[in-house]
Amino acid sequence: MNDPIAVLGAGSWGTALAVLLAGKGRPIRLWGRDPRHVAQIEAKRENSDYLPGVAIPASVTPTPSLADALRSAGIVLVVTPSRALRALAETLRTTDGLSPDAVLVSCTKGLEHGTGMRMSEILAQNLPSKSVAVLSGPSHAEEVARNVPAAVVLGCADPAVAKHLQQVFNTRAFRTYTSDDVAGIELGGALKNIFAIAAGICDGLELGDNTKAALVTRSLAELIRLGVRLGGQRETFQGLSGIGDLMVTCFSRHSRNRLVGERVGRGESLAAISASMKMVAEGVPTTRSAWDCAQKVGVVTPVIDQMHAILYGQQSPKEALNELMLRDPKPEREGG
Fold first, then answer.
1. What share of the chain in percent tops pLDDT 70?
2. Which residues make Cβ contacts (< 8 Å) with residue 194, sequence separation at least 6?
3. Has residue 331 been placed in a domain?
4. CB-based contacts of 191: which residues, under 8 Å, 6+ apart?
5. What's the domain count of the chain?
6. Exactly one of 192, 278, 296, 318 is catalytic; which is it?
7. Residue 257 pLDDT more than 90?
8. What is the pLDDT of residue 335?
9. What is the dihedral of CA 251, 257, 262, 264, to 10 degrees?
10. 192 a catalytic residue
11. Which domain holds residue 220?
12. Spatial separation of the C-alpha atoms in residues 210 and 182, rounded to whole Å
């Protein structure tokens, strides 16, 4: 198969995936919303704003035209920020060029505020005739684009589609597993970003390894508790899109969410941090969405509660730490 692949989103992750798939000999169309940014990528053959130092192969065609990006594409990767995904899905519904047989792959990690919907659910709601898959796992763009070995999981309800996509994505440096637990994969990928901000706060407060290890361990328990209640399978959260993604995001120097937390822990305001960043830290909006979901389903989420209080209330990081440490003692296996 040599049909074009459309990558919708010219940020760091979209660019890294375009480079990855171009390496397998596929023609890639990389769509960006900003014509000036797209023109810059075309002229420099590098996405200097979001992924500097990575050469973009000649088989990648940057374009600001959504219709041109979609034309004849058998696979469409959706790699926009979560807050922009619904608008894009609604546009896709009426845009000329989208093939009737195109498979949509959500590569965005987040939950929609207000509805609590996962990204694949938004795509399926707007494009009900399309097969929808999801891609997640510990895979920072900076490393994937340079062929540093990584392993991810690709989720789809249709095993034949999952197998086909696995063959498309799998390389010597990008090992791709499959799963039918779409909900679990997406929930793990979304929720871990909240805990990465919390881990960053530990770094900003210079609390040490013991504190951070305890936080990440209890965060995993919380992720599983809420994730299972929202429809994911426990085993999924013990895999690449759960504990794997949680670990890399909480500890990596590449993690935007961890960096946001570190800066919060050092005393910077969220407004100032957001204004200084080109890229989106998905854990910030996801904290609000996940907190709403936990309240609705009645799941105890002490870490998410404190992160919500820090990011959307008046709680200081040190006060949040005290709240967590002074909770009533209980058995480790008990919820909370």
1. 99
2. 257, 283, 286, 287, 290, 303, 304, 307
3. no
4. 223, 226, 227, 286, 290
5. 2
6. 192
7. yes
8. 66
9. -160
10. yes
11. 189-325
12. 33
Same domain membership, residue 95 and residue 11:
yes
Q: What is the pLDDT of residues 24-73, one digit of tens each?
A: 999 999 999 999 999 999 999 999 999 999 999 999 999 999 999 999 99
The answer to whether residue 2 scores a pLDDT higher than 90 is no
Q: Is the pTM here over 0.70, yes or no? A: yes
Tokens found for residue 1: 């198969």
CA 229 to chain centre: 20
pLDDT digits (tens, 9 = 90+) for 272-310: 999 999 888 999 999 999 999 999 999 999 999 999 999
Give residue 74's Cα distance to chain centre.
23
Q: What is the CATH number of the domain that holds 163?
A: 3.40.50.720
Whether residues 196 and 149 share a domain: the answer is no
pLDDT at 137 > cutoff 80: yes
CA 271, chain centre distance (Å)? 21
Longest alpha-carbon distance in the chain: 60
Q: Supply the pLDDT for residue 97.
A: 86
Among the three residues 162, 180, 198, which one is the final residue of a domain in this structure?
180
The pair of structure tokens assigned to 225 is 């508790």
In this structure, the answer to whether residues 302 and 276 fall within a common structural domain is yes
Q: How confident is the model over 75-104, as a mean pLDDT? A: 95
Helix residue ranges per DSSP H, the chain: 12-22, 35-44, 66-70, 82-94, 119-126, 141-144, 159-169, 182-204, 209-229, 234-237, 245-251, 256-265, 270-276, 283-297, 302-312, 317-325
Question: Of 136, 155, 180, which residue constitutes the final position of a domain?
Answer: 180
Stated as kind and residue range, the H or E segment containing 29 is strand 28-31
